[in-house]
Amino acid sequence: MLEFSKVQPEETVSEVVNYSQSSMSNDSCTSFSRLSFDALELLPQPRPMYSPESLMLKPHRSSESSWQAIRSMVDGGSTLSFRDFCLVRQIGSGDIGKVYLCRLRNEDVEERKCYYAMKVVDREVLALKKKIERAATEKKILNMLDHPFLPSLYAQFEASHFSCVVMEYCSGGDLHSLRHKQPRKRFSLSAARFYAAEVLVALEYLHMLGIIYRDLKPENVLVRSDGHIMLTDFDLSLCSDAIPAVQSQSQSLSSSPDLPSSSPAVQRPPSGHFSCLPTQLFRSKKIQSFSAAKRLFVAEPVTARSCSFVGTHEYVAPEVASGRSHGNAVDWWALGIFIYEMVYGCTPFAGVSNEATLRNIVKKPLKFPTVSSNSSRESQARDLISKLLDKDPDSRFGSKRGAADIKTHPFFNGLNFALIRSATPPVIPSQKTMTATTSFDFF
After folding, report:
1. The domain spanning residue 60 has which CATH number?
2. 215 catalytic residue (yes or no)
3. Most buried of the four, 113, 290, 334, 358, by CB within 10 Å?
């Protein structure tokens, strides 16, 4: 059963995170080059930050070899630390940390080695940049997640003045790189629909937990070894509250624009309604009518608000670009930009400069590369994109009931969201042998 965790909303409205060229930069945590884990052996064992008992709370990873390898390390009550991992090479760099490919030290046979991604953050650099709270938010969110399209936190610990988190490694790169390998640097409509659907499911889960992502872009959508996606990088996310409810699919959106009712009016089935379960099985008339009506599960953080100026220029919503407060609708705007870029190979409001891009987002009308669409599926994609890129956040598609509404759009007709994890991805990454040479020579 999913447990809805209540976390405190953003504390200060005056907090402003200045834009950079993107939400990620390459100049952060440069002091990690001074780090040698071997030299840290003389330091006292750091206080454990991740209990062995918490490893039991990731059921969807229980059958994977990388998870079992971690579990075998903590059997008997021991805790993981920097001494248990061996770094291989750097694979990424972000605004508040660097990411390294790593493996467990005790795995000597190449065929048995399991690889992980370790994000390393220099707390001294965080303090200078005044981004300690952002790093803390990301850790808190990672501890909450248990979903096939979101990262699994395997371990977290501290080494000297560095803070480390170990997560699942995605060998397929990211969707930005993958798109550039496609013909005309764009995905087919079927591939774009697949990736949009998995991102939608991931965002739905985050919103159910009261988390507004705020940094959706192809660079943050990683591709796992099986071809499915993993949404990553939560240092810009906003934590709030979501109130779960069950609504009738035909219930008016305007009847409860902010807080969905947990006891909506129940529709009675029309005469001659056929059900595979006879109504005699239900002793309560209330249960009979409830089971007959089409229901939608809704858990959208509609009351969340922030004035922080965060995101990536081409993906920020108009309310953010204009300096107004924003809420859950920014993620659905970003989903519209994401689908547009997947289908057409570019973003719709990009300008010659960051300032021009922000002006276009606020004032420029949405346009598509060609006047008419080539197929009915493309027409459906354009309709969905247009509804998601509504400049008014109050009328934007998904702003009231989130993914529950977006899933019903014709663009996703024929797609079984409940079984999408079992669907065949458009691209399966080639299994390249990773050379785990001596890890620390390059430091």
Report:
1. 3.30.200.20
2. yes
3. 334
